[in-house]
Design goal:
695 residues; alpha/beta; Rossmann fold; six-stranded parallel beta sheet; five-stranded parallel beta sheet; elongated
């Protein structure tokens, strides 16, 4: 298809806006947007299906900018197509409170699918989005009714390919034969350090071909619009492989610094900005200028997208008549509504039930919910038999051609790819209609920390099933025993770190994880068996913390707070203390984040004034000062051996806990009044609020 002068003017408008936006903000990355303007113009106008008036249309094509530093490109496109992105928004790039932050944030800006910036993450997200389409299409499409058939397009650069998370995700995408995924590799040969020859000389296309990808090379991404269009059209015809176009571009095309790292992350100087505009036929003294014919061109494309959605709506109305149950289910899932009464399927336990490892209790939940929550889709990073993440009747999510499963299957074999698993889960969640979960050992959730941080920042629901959660895994030793991981993720805003002590708390953890639509969860689960505790019920667990045991008269000499597998040890310590004439309250605190959301009165009822508080956990004690006066834990690495021996080594037996509790009582004897650490925290917060200090 021939390209006109208007096409060229559109492309150069993107380039000059990239110059103006970064110049005005005095920061940003103009180089990649200037180089990627041609392929963006061709992709969005000739291939992509979207409606700016409804950025959440379920069957829209998804666009991911994995090289998120180039976000000026995406913001400019959103503006030109008529998304809620004004010229004022572009002029406020990187300013406080603007809709145009320094890297794309999905929860801040309409039209942004996922939050990108940390390189490689967007590639993982794109794989997740493509998997979501394959799964939902296989689940809901019927002959004559392609309810879900969108494509996922992803731009990435050399930095993304240097990050391991992208390689993990692309390897899996090739195995899964995701023909609905098309990536464009911005091959501009520049990274922050300069020419990539200093550190990155591999053949990227050869690597992707080894992964099972279809590849195309376009030698002139700066000007050859016909070759770009032909490459995209070729990729769309390949339905049994993901595709990648290697696009040779010139970073900062048109600038005096074009082709160098000097135009990567710095605005152009004044004289350079003017000569760029003059070169592209614009008034060098005029800023933020968009010719009317450019607006007209892009608005025409947007109108075609609106028409495409209207046609889809008409098709879906007929689909709803022919397949009413499927249509109802599709709508419910698209709106992220849970089925009525689903929570009644959560397992409950009494003290007459046997001791069970919480990883097995987690499996019980997944099995119980597998039929009532069809949107629950998950897997494991090659630890299925250890994580216990697969219910008995599960069908694997696999390309039908392999004979290993179906795209409609709900169990994902991630392989040993923890980081990609978490990034892919973000894509699955961002698509809508799927609640993703993924299993690994808690120690290896640290491998996935970058993606989980983006889950929290992006307000995405994703559930990380983290088994073998402490020194309780025993013989594998300190390389596998996470002692610091809880402190890390408890410090992460908008992330729930759960450590249930028994079956009812495990069900409570899943209840909260599933109902928190904008928060990821990590559920830390034991390898060793744990008894069902007296006083534990789901209704208490969902508050994040509660009083498990209290003296009959309510007057405790000491309060012992714990989580997970150590709670039952503390319960047994009560008996030892009783023999020594001391009364103890036991508090179970499975999720700090949820407990902190309870009202102040409730929190102080659990941690009242009047008695010293001792925390007990087989982790680092970092952070426990918020709730307790004294802390008992592991401020070093673990040890290899049978788990009971390891617990004994670190003085985490009932007798040891009782001894620590008694010492706590002795130390605080004579201090009056003993104020709860939470009381101090609340009073300090109130003082800060009064004087105008906010955190």
């Amino acid at each position: 298809m021939a390209f006109s002068e208007v096409d060229v003017k559109c492309i150069n408008t993107i380039r000059t806006l990239a110059v103006d936006i970064t110049t005005k903000s005095k920061s940003g990355h103009p180089g990649a947007p200037m180089g990627m303007a041609p392929v963006s113009h061709v992709l969005f106008n000739k291939f992509m299906k979207f409606n700016p008036k409804n950025p959440r249309w379920m069957n829209r094509d998804r666009f991911i900018l994995s090289n998120g530093h180039a976000c000026v490109l995406q913001y400019t496109l959103l503006h030109l197509f008529g998304y809620p992105m004004s010229m004022k928004d572009l002029q406020e790039f990187r300013q406080l409170g603007s809709a145009t932050p320094g890297h794309p944030e999905s929860h801040e800006t309409a039209g942004i699918e996922v939050t990108t910036g940390p390189l490689g993450q967007g590639v993982g997200n794109a794989v997740g989005l493509a998997m979501a389409q394959a799964h939902l299409g296989a689940t809901f499409n019927k002959p004559g009714y392609n309810v879900i058939d969108n494509y996922t397009y992803c731009f990435f650069g050399d930095g993304c390919m240097m990050e391991g998370v992208a390689s993990e995700a692309m390897s899996l995408a090739g195995h899964l034969q995701l023909g609905n995924l098309i990536c464009v590799y911005d091959d501009n040969h520049i990274s922050i350090d300069g020419d990539i020859n200093c550190a990155f000389t591999e053949d990227v296309m050869m690597r992707l071909e080894a992964y099972g990808w279809h590849t195309v090379v376009v030698g002139d991404g700066d000007n050859d619009l016909n070759s770009i269009e032909q490459a995209l059209a070729e990729c769309k015809k390949v339905t049994d492989k993901p595709s990648c176009i290697k696009l040779r571009t010139t970073i900062g095309y048109g600038s005096k610094l074009e082709g160098t790292h000097g135009v990567h992350g710095n605005p152009l100087k004044g004289d350079d900005a003017e000569q760029v505009k003059a070169k592209f036929g614009f008034n060098p003294k005029e800023n933020f200028h968009v010719p009317q014919e450019v607006y007209d061109y892009y608005h025409n494309t947007a109108a075609q997208g609106a028409k495409a959605e209207e046609e889809w709506n008409a098709m879906f109305a007929k689909y709803a008549q022919e397949y009413p149950d499927l249509a109802k289910e599709f709508t419910r899932r698209a709106e992220q509504k849970l089925p009525e009464g689903w929570e009644k399927s959560l397992p409950t336990y009494t003290t007459s039930d046997p001791a069970i490892a919480s990883r097995k209790l987690s499996e019980n939940v997944l099995t119980a919910l597998s039929d009532v929550l069809p949107e629950l889709v998950g897997g494991s990073a090659d630890l299925t038999g250890s994580n216990l993440t697969r219910w008995g009747k599960a069908i694997d999510f696999q390309p039908p051609a392999t004979g290993l499963g179906e795209y409609s299957g709900r169990y994902i074999r991630y392989g040993v790819r923890e980081h990609a698993m978490a990034a892919i889960m973000n894509g699955l969640s961002a698509y809508s209609g799927i609640i993703p979960y993924g299993g690994t050992f808690l120690n290896f959730v640290s491998y996935a920390a970058g993606a989980i941080r983006l889950s929290a920042l992006s307000q995405l629901r994703a559930i990380h099933v983290a088994t073998h959660d402490s020194i309780g895994l025993g013989e594998d030793g300190p390389t596998h025993q996470p002692v610091e991981t809880a402190a890390h993720f408890r410090a992460l805003p908008n992330c729930m770190f759960w450590r249930p002590a028994d079956g009812n708390e495990t069900s409570a953890a899943y209840y909260c994880a599933l109902t928190a639509k904008e928060t990821p969860s990590i559920i830390a689960l034991s390898r060793q068996n744990l008894p069902q505790l007296e006083g534990s019920v789901i209704q208490k667990g969902v508050r994040g913390g509660y009083t498990l045991i209290d003296p009959e008269d309510g007057k405790a000499d000491v309060i012992i707070v714990s989580t997970g597998s150590e709670v039952c040890i503390c319960v047994d310590a009560v008996k030892v203390l009783k023999e020594q004439g001391l009364k103890a309250r036991i508090v179970s605190l499975p999720c700090w984040e949820v407990f902190d959301q309870q009202d102040q009165e409730y929190q102080l009822s659990v941690f009242p004034d009047g008695a010293p508080i001792l925390s007990v956990e087989a982790y680092s004690t970092l952070g426990w000062q918020k709730y307790s006066h004294e802390q008992h834990g592991i401020n070093g690495f673990g040890a290899s051996g049978p788990y009971l021996d390891v617990y004994k080594k670190f003085e985490l037996t009932p007798e040891d806990v009782a001894e620590k509790a008694k010492a706590t009582v002795e130390f605080w004897k004579g201090v009056s009044p003993i104020r709860s650490p939470l009381r101090r925290a609340f009073e300090q917060k109130n003082v800060h609020t009064l004087v105008g200090v906010h955190h």
